[in-house]
């Protein structure tokens, strides 16, 4: 069964304290791995798509990496405005015609000034 | 700036009442998804459509939920009758799904927060 597990569930950081969020996945053939950011009371906002092991993508203080079993979202020198829930989702090859995503439970990040 | 819109943003209703949520996908997107989000279950996929045709609604309680796309600019999710356990945030997402490419990003709307008393 295709599955996505994110850890930790919650993470508290001081401003400037770099860290990483983990997304482990089990899927019968990965088509793509997606990272979203969700602020309270809002819908998930797309951040990155990764397609193959070794791929990396960056946006401001965020960098996403992908291996054959997991993805990391590295946050460098975070600021309070980076506080949000970060969601990871995978699309299996078997879902290439549907676009269906399987979401993890998310990691809630709080960055204190 | 193209975005998915949803109405209403908030809905409070009493058990047994009908609830209709609406979604306008991004123009040009061919696939629409309905999700439900709760603290316990996270994001659950309820149903999705391709070119207005239902592809899969196996995530929905069939006896009370129904989803339709009357036209390319409107998707609806109905609950009749509503129950307290339906209280959640309902999201609509749209995407341009093309099997020949890898551009399958889903873009989410702001959600409808439903409270059933």
Topology:
The complex is a heterodimer of chains A (113) and B (117).
Chain A: E1 3-7, E2 10-14, E3 19-26, E4 30-38, E5 45-50, E6 56-59, E7 62-66, E8 70-75, E9 84-92, E10 102-103, E11 107-112
Parallel strand pairs in A: 2-11
Antiparallel strand pairs in A: 1-3, 3-8, 4-5, 4-9, 6-7, 7-8, 9-10, 9-11
Chain B: E1 5-7, E2 10-13, E3 19-24, E4 31-38, E5 42-50, E6 53-56, E7 65-71, E8 74-79, E9 88-95, E10 107-108, E11 112-116
- Major β-sheet of chain A, in short? 6 strands, mixed
Percent of residues in helices of chain B comes to under 10%
Please tally the β strands of chain B and state the result.
11
Question: On the 0-100 scale, what is the average pLDDT of chain B?
Answer: 92
**Whole-number mean pLDDT of chain A:** 94
Biggest sheet features of chain B:
7 strands, mixed
- Given helix and strand content, the structural type of chain B is mainly beta
Rg for CA atoms of chain B? 14 Å
Share of helix among residues of chain A? under 10%
With helices defined by DSSP (H or I, 4 residues minimum), what is the helix count of chain A? 0
> Helix count of chain B, per DSSP?
0
The low-confidence runs of chain A, each spanning 5 or more residues with pLDDT under 50, are none
Number of strands of chain A: 11
Q: How would you portray this structure in words?
A:
The complex is a heterodimer of chains A (113) and B (117). In chain A, a hairpin with a 6-residue loop joins strand 4 and strand 5. Chain A is globular, with a radius of gyration of 14 Å. With 113 residues, chain A is mostly beta strands. The N and C termini of chain A lie far apart (41 Å). Chain A is built from no helices and 11 strands. Chain B has 117 residues and is mainly β. Helix content of chain B is 0%, strand content 53%. Chain B is built from no helices and 11 strands. In chain B, the strands form 2 sheets. In chain B, strands 2, 4, 5, 6, 9, 10 and 11 form a 7-stranded mixed sheet that branches. The N and C termini of chain B lie far apart (36 Å). The model of chain B has no long low-confidence stretch (mean pLDDT 92). At the A-B interface, strand 4 and strand 5 of A face strand 5, strand 9 and strand 10 of B.
């Amino acid at each position: 069964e295709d599955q996505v597990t994110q850890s930790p569930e919650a993470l508290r950081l001081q401003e400037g304290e770099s860290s990483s969020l983990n997304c482990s996945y089990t899927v019968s053939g990965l088509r793509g791995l997606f990272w979203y950011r969700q602020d309270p009371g809002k819908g998930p906002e797309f951040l990155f798509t990764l397609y193959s092991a070794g791929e990396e993508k960056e946006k401001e203080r965020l960098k996403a990496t992908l291996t054959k079993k997991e993805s990391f979202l590295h946050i460098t020198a975070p600021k309070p405005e980076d506080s949000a829930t970060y969601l990871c989702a995978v699309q299996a090859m078997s879902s290439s015609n549907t676009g269906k995503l399987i979401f993890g439970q998310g990691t809630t990040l709080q960055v204190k000034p | 700036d193209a975005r998915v819109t949803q109405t209403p943003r908030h809905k409070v209703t009493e058990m047994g009442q009908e609830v209709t949520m609406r979604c306008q996908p991004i123009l040009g997107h061919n696939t629409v998804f309905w999700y439900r989000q709760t603290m316990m279950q996270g994001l659950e996929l309820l149903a999705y459509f391709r070119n207005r045709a239902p592809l899969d609604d196996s995530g929905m309680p069939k006896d009370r939920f129904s989803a339709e796309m009357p036209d390319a600019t409107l998707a609806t999710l109905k609950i009749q009758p509503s129950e307290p356990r339906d209280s959640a945030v309902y999201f609509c997402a749209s995407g341009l799904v093309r099997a020949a490419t890898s551009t399958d990003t889903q873009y989410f709307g702001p959600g409808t927060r439903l409270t059933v008393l």
